[in-house]
Amino acid sequence: SMYGTYRFNTTEYVTSALKPTEDNEAYKKWIYLRWWLQKVPLNLDYVSSSDQQWTWSLEKVEVQFSGPGFSAGEVIQIKRGAQATNILSGHANYPTSNPFVKNHPQGALRWSGMKFTVWSTEFESVIVGRAQGYRYVLFGDARSYALDEKKTITRVLTDTTGGVTKTIKLRLTAKSKRLS
Fold first, then answer.
1. Does the pTM exceed 0.85?
2. How far apart are CA 27 and CA 25, in angstroms?
3. Computed from CA positions of residues 133, 137, 139, 140, in that sequence, does the dihedral angle turn out positive or negative?
4. pLDDT at position 157, please?
5. Which of 166, 48, 174 is nearest to 105 (CA)?
């Protein structure tokens, strides 16, 4: 785009509940998306305050990973604001600083979103126990933890490629839970 492209990733919790929690399907219906947006001039008849001249237009979105709860043909909604799907709690209306909240024909804009259709699904087989084996190496035996006990560890990874050394510091937290 001659005005610029913005790329980012999000994790969404797609649930029929107004506000996803651990008690509904949010943990089966999560989806990790990669977005590409283009900065474009705002259409003159678009609802906005008079000083808003630019907006973002969706170029494309790709699913990178997801939970197992989706079906081919299913219509899902990705939302922000009071019904945001990128968080599990702490939902709030759009702030008044958002220029698209004002001048909305139906009153203050509290939330918005987009609908997408799941065209197909595929299942990648996972070697049973691999993830749990890794967590055991990091955090030890879960049986030695009290219910809801948390443990945080820090790992530092360093790699040298082409004479350039890069280091990343990871802080991982685990919480013991009773499996049903």
1. no
2. 5
3. positive
4. 83
5. 48
